[in-house]
Amino acid sequence: MFRIVLSTALAVVVAGGAIAAESKRDTVKSGAWSMTLPLGLQGDSAYIPDGNPMNEGKVELGKLLYFDKRLSKDQTISCATCHHPFHGYAEPKTVSAGVGGALGGRNSPTVINRLFSADQFWDGRAADLEEQAHGPLTNPIEMAMPSHDAVVAVVKGIKGYPPLFAKAFGDPKVDMPRIAKAIAAYERTVVSGNSAYDRYQAGDKSALSASAVRGMELFNGKANCAACHASFNFTDENYRNIGVGMDKPDPDLGRYAVTKENADKGAFKTPTLRNIVHTAPYMHDGSEATLMDVVEFYDKGGIKNPQLSADMRPLKLSYQEKLDLIEFMHALTGEVTNATPPESFPQ
User: Fold this and answer.
1) Which residue in 91, 142, 237, 327 is the catalytic one?
2) 142 tagged catalytic
3) DSSP sequence for 66-84
4) What is the C-alpha to C-alpha distance for residues 10 and 22, in angstroms, rounded to an integer?
5) Residue pLDDT, tens place only, 83-128
6) Where do the domains of the chain lie, and which CATH numbers do they carry?
7) pTM score, two decimals?
């Protein structure tokens, strides 16, 4: 595992009654490669595996592969189809449609700030982004390629790609591990910070409305959101059962399928709340259409079941408190790096 520990220093200057805040932003480094993070993100939490050091060529290659629909069986689906920058690197559908319109069983989670996580998918079944990148390519209800060898053959057959592999990896060999490493490298550059909340925390007290400040206090207090949506990325990266779908005859058991631990039945990863306003619908099954629906779900204490998290309880929020919480979540919307789709692809 590769981690960089850097300090964040805040300099607050008071001028003419206004507070101007400047922050020394954290930088993540991997060999000669480096990336300055948006305000509010912590470089010491970055996860870059030792086996996949970053470089510009790899990021450039990975971005092309991420958006290239030719990697699917019928050339209609790319990684970006279900995780698109125009939709917060998620998709505005309850569940995604793959090749031939086949529907998946879960809502597409955002790619944003996956730099700060090892385990991937709602149930954490992939150990890292590299492992995650393998799955959708051959999943019959996603990109539906018959095998990883078929994926490699497609990429090899596009003359413009091998030179980019040479730039990224030192030689033009195309194979599945390199395809996955390149896609993962690109995804690690998709990060979001410098939100109104971050500027407020850096000293600009005009960055949040009065409603958002009240919502922040509720978030950390009465509403108990911070118990799970913790730290700078608003997730503790853990798995909990909050009851979603557990009242169905055959519920999705989530993390249990990976661990086979009874306590993990119905448990799913806590998602980041950064840029949450762009990633509706919500929950692993897309069952909550709006942020108000989500707040109402938590206000009633989730759906009771034997594995319900101890953090779940009725909140008894007033309507104004619900609005304040939502206003605070809006304030978590920030700039997203490296989010412009490619204008063209290798031929």
Assistant:
1) 142
2) yes
3) HH-GGGSTTS---HHHHSB
4) 6
5) 999 999 999 999 999 999 999 999 999 999 999 999 999 999 999 9
6) 10-47 (no CATH), 56-190 (1.10.760.10), 193-330 (1.10.760.10)
7) 0.92
